[in-house]
Amino acid sequence: MPFNHHTKSKGDLGVLKAQVDLLEQGYAVLLPLTEHCPFDLVAYKDGEFRRVQVKYRRVSRFGTIDVKFSTCWADRNGTHTVSIDKREVDVYCIYCPDTENCYYLEPTRFGSSASLRVKTPKNSQRKRVHFADDYRRDP
Known about the structure:
Order of helices and strands: HEEEEEEEEE
Number of domains: 1
CATH architecture: 3-Layer(aba) Sandwich
CATH class: Alpha Beta
Radius of gyration: 15 Å
Strand order of the largest sheet: 1-2-3-7-8
Strand content: 35-45%
Number of helices: 1
Number of strands: 9
């Protein structure tokens, strides 16, 4: 990463990758004028606007891409974690640098978190497993 603020650089890269991926899917991409929205961008296609929150996530040692539907920040009073309001975001776009792909989740279809499996489980289980490749296009 060419920037000193590593976390911010990852987020910026994720948003850029999401923009390219959505443009390739035929969406127009709109950006908010503030960083204080609950979403990072808006995708527009066929008369429909979709509010998109972008996350940068690597593949875990267990072969999954994990995302929590919460936001976290630190201030002088400590670290704070708050669940997102799922009514304010239509789609989570997860950019994974290990696969170089974006994955799209509707947060209302999941609980407080989601795990997308990149590698086949060792026990070959397929039932109730969310395979990352099934989430490659905007739902």
